[in-house]
Amino acid sequence: MHEELLLLDQLELNFNSQGLFVLNLVLAFVMFGVALEIKPHHFKEVFKKPKSAIIGFFSQFIMLPALTFLFSMLISDFITVGVALGMIMVASCPGGNISNFISHLAKGNTALSVSLTGISSLGAIILTPINFAFYGNMFINYAEKHSDLVQPLTIDPVQMFITVFIILGIPLIAGLQFSRYFPAFTQKIIKPIKTFSILAFIGFIAVAFSNNFTHFIKHFEWVTLIVFFHNLIALTSGFYLAKFTGLKQINWRTVSIETGIQNSGLALVLIFNPKIFPPELEVGAMAYIAAWWGIWHIIAGLTMAYFWRKTPISFNSQ
Questions:
Q1: Where are its TM segments located (predicted)?
Q2: Which fold has domain 2-309?
């Protein structure tokens, strides 16, 4: 298994600078669309009743990266540093753009989902670089002492901060200002923009998948297993954290979805950024994990939404 994953680390995906540029544009457009849905009353509700938002934020940015690091340590004898860093990168990113849609399908708290998406996207500007640098460097230091699968790698949180701010921060600010000054026009375009942005992101992932189909098939077994358990940890930890901290049942679903639907597109942007990871570094495994997450979390999220939609919610339970 070591040998197969070493080959995965050395994998060169069919993804060039033009593809990265398109992905940057798609993500920026997605975040602009997300911002159009965020209204001042969402934040007011968070400040009035902050518990749900605090639990959701904690689940995403504190608990999931820590659990991911522990999971990476647990299976460290069977994975390379690249695979571990791919998981840590995904766990360090904010919730994915499709989480609001899935939360709505699952009859979760859509308003909380939108609020968490906005808060986590803004928080990611600081916390994504910090979490990845912290847990990534810890795993590298551990692996250097216990494994022969380490490649030289340094993590630059400053460059990550710059990239995340450009991809998330600027479109969010622009979207918030646009909806503020053009509220009537925003209401007309918000639904088609959201639909288009989701389809554009799924389309990009589909094209990237088809361009690297042979690579995915060759390493499908191990990566699918790793991503499956990692995503399962994210979904279940969010669900039970919300349950055991006394949130209403409708919020159990939302926190679970927000924790288990990660912005894997942002992870790919960071992984393929030559200023963060120079071309001579082998980032194939990291990119493979993030790309498969982009496909799998949609499948897992829609599956859970299907079953939850058929399950009654007790609105009085705490």
A1: 20-40, 52-75, 81-102, 114-138, 158-176, 196-216, 222-242, 254-273, 285-308
A2: Na+/H+ antiporter like fold (1.20.1530)
